Amino acid sequence: MSESKNIKKFKFKSFGDESGWLVPIEASKDIPFEIKRIYYIYDTTANAVRGKHAHIDLEQVLVCLNGGCTIVVDDGKECKEVILSQRTDGLYIGNNVWREMKDFSKDCVLLVLASKYFEDSQYIRDYEEFLAVVGG
Ligand code: TYD
Q1: pLDDT at 5
Q2: Which ligand 1 atom is at minimum distance from the Cα of 53?
Q3: For the residues of 96-115, what is the DSSP string, one character each?
Q4: Model confidence over 20-36: pLDDT tens digits?
Q5: Which residues have a catalytic role annotated?
Q6: How many CA atoms lie less than 13 Å away from 42 in the CB half-sphere?
Q7: pLDDT class for 4, splitting at 50, 70, 90?
Q8: Given ligand 1 and candidates 115, 118, 123, which is best to mutate, with the most ligand atoms within 8 Å of its CB?
Q9: What is the per-residue pLDDT across 62-121, written as a single tens digit (0 to 9) for each?
Q10: Ligand 1 atom showing the smallest separation from residue 112 Cα
Q11: Is the pTM of this model over 0.90?
Q12: Measured distance CA(57)–CA(59) in Å, rounded
């Protein structure tokens, strides 16, 4: 899958020297939306597969603060796997993208920045329904 406007891996600027590194994230500057919500996933079990949903109207940026994991992104036409293993990597996921998170390292801490508050009605949890929505 070529990068689309709804799926984009990118690098944050980082500042550092021998004393350590710092990555700033400013809403609407380093990521393309105002941040309304932050959550993080950790202590994932071996073989855990999370996500398995799409959002109708929600933008997110995923960053692995520790360890690594694989994000499966599917726009209904193409499906690809993105590995997040660098603390300076961000993955932007826009509307109507089916995502699954897997292959978590034991020490993985996955940070998610979201453009909206949590709303269960914004989830599509059924893959067939997702395909019908995106016309895939
Ligand atoms: P879920 O979205 O299913 O997690 P994942 O996509 O990683 O598998 O959410 C798990 C639980 O956490 C579910 O009961 C809803 C709750 N939750 C919130 O209360 N607020 C949130 O911002 C998120 C993402 C989930």
Answers
A1: 87
A2: 6
A3: T-EEEEE---TT-EEEEEES
A4: 999 999 999 999 999 99
A5: 53
A6: 9
A7: confident
A8: 118
A9: 999 999 999 999 999 999 999 999 999 999 999 999 999 999 999 999 999 999 999 999
A10: 24
A11: yes
A12: 7
Q: 36: alpha, beta or left, given left = phi > 0 and alpha = psi -120 to 50?
A: alpha
When pLDDT is cut at 50, 70 and 90, the band that residue 129 belongs to is very high
Both tokens assigned to 103: 């292959």
How close is the Cα of 2 to the center of ligand 1, in Å? 29
The finding on whether 67 has its CB within 6 A of some atom of ligand 1 is no
**Which of 35, 37, 50 best tests ligand 1's pocket when mutated (most atoms within 8 Å of CB)?**
50
Nearest CA to ligand 1 atom 15: 120
